[in-house]
Amino acid sequence: MDNQTCFLIMIAILLLVYYMNQQTNAKIEKEHNKYIKNLIEGMDDDESLQDAVEDAVEDAVEDAVEDAVEEVIEEAEDKINEAVEEVLPDFNSELKNKLKESHHICPHMGKEANMLTCIQYPPHNTAYLVSLCCDGCIREIQHNFKQPQSQHKYKFVKEGNDYYFHGKVGKQQVLPCTPYHIKKMKEITGYRIA
């Protein structure tokens, strides 16, 4: 065979392969479309598609309602806090100075305080705002208050009209832990909230 004949045979084979590939691709596409159609029809017959749509709508409505409720609650809390701030007397300069002096030193370690935290005190069923120097103080104090009251090493005591925290090395005038008091004490001390 000469080169020209080999070349023509090669082209014929390539055309045959191309034609067969096209036929195969067409059959694959036809079967794929048939499968998708059956899948959709099967979903209609089983009402699965309708159930899926209803579930999606129900989930979307629930999410929208939850978001709306959260937004209303946040707005209500903001309005309540504003109303509380209007009703509560503003901290006068004497009280501010007294609190700033009292919160300068950590009553637990005797070091310079640098953080404000709320300590839960079970005997009073409330929390008080205390200035401390480290996270270790917070853990130690709060752990102590988880013990039976007879084993408490530290305490919150009312003296006159004020409350004081008695720690390892000293005492500190404290306020109940409320958003209003936290805001005011942060303004007075400049400490971070822990």
Number of domain modules: 2
- Mind telling me the C-alpha Rg? 37 Å
Distance linking N and C termini: 92 Å
Helix content: 55-70%
Q: Give a short account of the largest sheet.
A: 6 strands, mixed
Judged by helices, strands and strand pairing, the structural class is alpha+beta
- The proportion of residues in beta strands is 15-25%
Parts with pLDDT < 50 across at least 5 consecutive residues: none
Query: How many helical stretches?
Result: 5
Number of DSSP E strands:
6
Order of helices and strands: HHHEEHEEEHE
The coarse silhouette is elongated
Give the overall average pLDDT: 82
Spatial order of the strands in the main sheet?
A: 3-4-5-2-1-6
Commentary on this structure:
This protein has helices spanning 3-46, 48-87, 93-102, 135-145, 179-189, and strands spanning 115-121, 126-132, 155-159, 162-166, 171-176, 192-193. The chain has 194 residues and is α+β, with helices and mostly antiparallel strands. It folds into two domains: 3-84; 93-193, no CATH class. Strands 3-4-5-2-1-6 form a six-stranded mixed sheet, sandwiched between helices. Strand 4 (162-166) and strand 5 (171-176) form a beta hairpin. The relative contact order is 0.10.
